[in-house]
Amino acid sequence: MTSKQAAANTPSPISIAAKGYAVDSESTPFKLFNFERRMPAADDVVIRIHYCGICHSDIHQVYNEWHSSKYPMVPGHEITGVVEQVGSSVKGFRVGDHAGVGCMVDSCRKCATCKKDIEQVCGDLCLTYNSTELDKVTPTYGGYSNLITVKEHFVCKIPKNLPLDAAAPLLCAGITTYSPLRRYKVDKHTQLGIVGLGGLGHIGVKLGAAMGAHVTVISTSESKRDDAMKLGAKVFIVSKDDEQMKTVANSLDLIIDTVSAPHDVGPLLNLLKFEGVYCVVGAPTKPLEVGAFTLLMKRPTITGSGIGGMKETQEMLDFCGKHNITCDIEKIDATPETIKAAYDRTVKADVKYRFVLDILNAFK
Amino acid sequence: MTSKQAAANTPSPISIAAKGYAVDSESTPFKLFNFERRMPAADDVVIRIHYCGICHSDIHQVYNEWHSSKYPMVPGHEITGVVEQVGSSVKGFRVGDHAGVGCMVDSCRKCATCKKDIEQVCGDLCLTYNSTELDKVTPTYGGYSNLITVKEHFVCKIPKNLPLDAAAPLLCAGITTYSPLRRYKVDKHTQLGIVGLGGLGHIGVKLGAAMGAHVTVISTSESKRDDAMKLGAKVFIVSKDDEQMKTVANSLDLIIDTVSAPHDVGPLLNLLKFEGVYCVVGAPTKPLEVGAFTLLMKRPTITGSGIGGMKETQEMLDFCGKHNITCDIEKIDATPETIKAAYDRTVKADVKYRFVLDILNAFK
Question: Which UniProt keywords apply (chains A, B) (predicted)?
Answer without folding.
Answer: Metal-binding, Oxidoreductase, Zinc
